[in-house]
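USER:
I would value a second opinion on how I read folds in token form. Give me a protein, with the fold worked out from its sequence. Write it directly below this note and I will take it from there.

ASSISTANT:
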Amino acid sequence: MEPNKKFKLVTSKKTRYLLPNILTLGGVCLGISSIKFSIDGNFNLAVTLILLAAILDALDGRVARLIKGTSEFGKELDSLTDFVSFGIAPVLILYFWELNNYGKLGWAIALIYSVCCVLRLARFNLTKNENDQDWKNNFFEGIPSPAGGLLILTPLIYDLTEFNLNLNIKSFTPFLTILIALLLVSKIPTPSLKKISISSKTTVFLLLTAGIIFIALLFYTFETLLVFGVIYLISIPLSILIYKKQEKKHSSKISDEDHEDVL
């Protein structure tokens, strides 16, 4: 009599690849759903779904590295879903909210943003730092697509807040969209938190900060998003200064090593 064989969808060695990819697919479902809700005029929920998609995008890569579930398939899937969730969905939300009032020009702006986003993702997939340039892993070239997707929604996010600064924020929408599109394909160094190491002593403070941010997003979602968007934009000039300083330090180190080899 033959022993019973357990039914398996995947082998036990490949189960660790499932979770990151499930998170990635969850993000693209949220992005596509946000388009549907924006068509219905529910911009409140549409922006919230883009935020959730960005959170899942931040988690899938970290989870994959944590459980050693990284793969070429996951990398390509992540880029494709990023284009849908942050290259198409946010700009369509913006189009249905305001850009459609500009006619053909509004649609052209939407296309420009999407093209810049897909170019940024293609370049990101081909970018590989050399072993002696690990310090560059703390920076992105240009604004990453999730940040860009949220930043172009800033006028809409402001409109959804309870702030009353007597600003005609809608008039800035086309200009901001073009600016963020250019920043996506630029080579301006922007901060990346992927390689930031955290000591055990600061873990408690990190958890406390994460808890405060979560509470703020829960009760003051759009106000919090607006504040973080402004902070991110302000951090870009600071990131450029830090990048230039580290680049100069690295160049001088290499020059010293070459000088020692000659001697």
User: Anything to note?
Assistant: The longest strand covers residues 139-141.
